[in-house]
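Example complex used in Figure S2.
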Amino acid sequence: MECLERDQGLPLNSPDRAVVSSSPLQIMSTVRTVPTTQETAELSYGGKTFQLPLIVGSEGEKAVDIGKLRSQTGLITFDPGFGNTGACKSAITFIDGEAGILRYRGYPIEELAQHSSFLEVAWLLIHGELPAKAQLEGFAKEVTYHTMLHENFVRFFGALPKDAHPMPVCAAAVGALATFYQEAENEETIHKNVIRLIAKMPTIAASSYKHFVGQPSVYPRNDLSYCANFLRMMFSNPCEEFQLDPLHAKALDLLLILHADHEQNCSTSTVRMVGSSQANLFACMSSGISALWGPLHGGANQMVIEMLEAIAQGDGSAERFVQRAKDKNDTARLMGFGHRVYKSHDPRAVILKRYCSEILDRIGPSHPSARLFDIARKLEEIALKDEYFVSRKLYPNVDFYSGVIYKALGIPTNMFTVMFAIGRLPGWVAQWLEMRRDPDFRIGRPRQVYVGATMRPVTPQ
Ligand code: CMC
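Predicted assembly (461 residues):
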């Protein structure tokens, strides 16, 4: 019954509008004061020497503060791809790429993967602390209560081409939530909208898949966990109720935890950039999904499985594919390999490789994923001994083994990046909230080095 009362699109001011109301988010994600240091960096230019202040992060990372560089020297910095540019201070996620360390709010990813649930991690990222038992129960209840989509979404999905890829469908649907929840943003409405986003994202994702396969969307159920609910919405149909394997729900929960945040990557930076104009929360999350779709970012998980399948269906030779990936005249890349930050190993890939073994032991060697896992391991083994990959410090990243597990769970390949988006959502939300509370908050507006034509007159023809 409760399910039918949820978010039914009543007028926003209707007293009947059944939005579970709780106290606004107790956000602890404000950025701590940055430790000061007496150290400075010196820049010599135009016969003068400039002292540039240094700031130090809580893990000892140092950054040159160039906030006044242009006004003092007339210079800007040039850093394509932002490989050396810190765009914000953040207290959410710490990565040491050289050591292969990833921590959310100080907690090692390995420990969170072992002891926590995805909703617990979502709370941690957003609030800054792990929830107490009662807080987690309250959060899970709120999220469960808001999983249903407004009925008008049936027409929304119906308006899209029948073979629409689920990623742009999700981006559009999340953006469209802004048309259903138009209250001005304040602490209370942001809280509700964060809950709505986390609650409705799996429903949107499953509906986008149902649309793709031409089946009616499946309504969420209140008695199931976050991941069990998603799997049921994916795999039930009017003729057959889905039989949940708890192992699958657990595996999915782990995958979501591992994807939940990753500091200032492409999609998170996009969320912050769009958010810096004070754009609406839903619009910012939609922009994050769009950025994530690219094959160099979250879209790589789909590309990895397509690569493994192409090798399996071709000559099956991992050696030959690695040769192709090294050849600069060949467009083939070893998808799921390499990372801007990790230069020894990606700890998420280590956890996932181990979990692949566990889940495939349970599922059995005849499952198609087992063959793909063998090929993936062979590719890794060859690449990690190959001078090309060793010298460039290229290792398997999170996308290398995640697809094998998704495949084992029966998730269709074109949904892999959508799964990444469900996992990353709390991270985007936490970063968006942190940005809005940052005392240094300014609209994002990079500069450029102009290399086009100098001024020239228009010659009338
Ligand atoms: N296969 C073959 N060569 C590679 C690969 C790869 N997967 N990745 C990097 N290289 C080479 C690259 O060609 C370059 O060689 P050279 O120095 O001779 O020009 C060198 O390694 C440095 O690479 P880069 O492209 O300059 O590094 P980047 O930091 O700009 O890009 C990356 C990082 C992840 C986009 C890149 O490694 C890549 O394209 N990997 C495959 C796609 C992929 O798996 N993406 C998922 C990333 S992890 C999930 C996420 O957070 O999005």
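Residues 81, 262, 265, 296-298, 300, 325, 333-340, 392, 394, 397-399 surround carboxymethyl coenzyme *A (CB under 6 Å). The longest strand covers residues 48-56.
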